[in-house]
Amino acid sequence: MQQANGQQRFLGVTPPIATNGPTDREKEVTDSLLAELTKEGVFPSGDEAKAREVVLSKIDALVKEFVYRASLARGLSESIAATSGGKIFSFGSYRLGVHGPGSDIDTLCVVPKHVQREDFFTIFEELLKAREEAQDVAAVPEAFVPVITCKFMGVEIDFLFARLALPRIDDDLELHDSNLLKNLDERDVRSLEALVLPTRSSDWCQTSRRHCEPLLYHSLPVKWPQPILLKNIEEGPLQTRVWNPKLYPQDRLHRMPIITPAYPSMCSTHNVTQSTHTIMTKEFKRAAEVVDRIIVGTTGWSELFEKHDFFHSYKYYLLVVASSGSAELQLKWSGTVESKIRQLIMKLELVPTLMCGSPLHQGLRPRKPMPQ
């Protein structure tokens, strides 16, 4: 909240639900929540945080090596290749500081314009496989969002690729400037929505939070299917489409539209299906009921963190087994199958008698090859 010309201003489209501070009871409940989260092991240790910083530092150097080799392979001189740069950006839960122990790190590899996507799935993949710190390297170029996954020094990393229309990528590059997104071909624009935009949105959320009072920096009206807007949609100069249900019929199909604050705006929940919407709504209601009981003192936070008994919640289960003849092929094949699970659930939702389908990804890592 800010005061301007005697009027209150706030970030976001809707005003805050309340501007008064927390009560003594709410402070007490907050302290007990932090204690329960610590007991549940939600917060990563200091050693783990340092280890992740080391991992990201090594990966950043690896990306620069990748850009250097790709530049040489594209016929550039030694001097130009050596100064082409390259940079990584983390996004998602790790970038926002809300990750837990063992969480993966979503990493965006930003490269200059002469480095091609094919280089990413050849040169960079081979560089990863050659590093002793990397295990279970698997590339899934056919996925909706092409990705390379691996464990690097024990930390799971998802590598995504983004190419900007720049001759070099310096270490001080930031993605706030919308002009960086110009001159992208159609394929890069499609990748932009899944790759560049999450980083820009994460930065916007962090900046907004730093300049606002704690816990009052936005309010989100949960009234679906009306869109939740973190920020008014920008009218930018770029030739990239923005979320607009009046112009684009597919935007009207979003079941739970939450529009990202950074340009170009997009629906960050485009993959919410009938089933996941049903599950989330049910869990939101359950959580609200539990929190109400916590506030009045009839239960504790431990009830909110009870384990979900997945294998007693449904009557029917469908097992999908992805197997191949070698460990290397298994990584690629299992990753491809995993990327298609959402489409399978959406197809199952077309069955008239099926009310909800809940996927559980399990056992998609390499196992001993099955006998031929």
TrEMBL record:
Stretches assigned to the Poly(A) polymerase nucleotidyltransferase domain: 12-192
EC number: 2.7.7.19
GO CC, one annotated term: nucleus
Domain of life, per lineage: Eukaryota
Protein name: polynucleotide adenylyltransferase
Pfam family, one: PAP_NTPase
Cofactor(s) needed: Mn(2+); Mg(2+)
Localisation: Nucleus
Textual note on the cofactor: Binds 2 magnesium ions. Also active with manganese.
Enzyme class, first EC level, given as a word: transferase
Lineage: Eukaryota, Viridiplantae, Streptophyta, Embryophyta, Tracheophyta
Species, as recorded: Dendrobium chrysotoxum
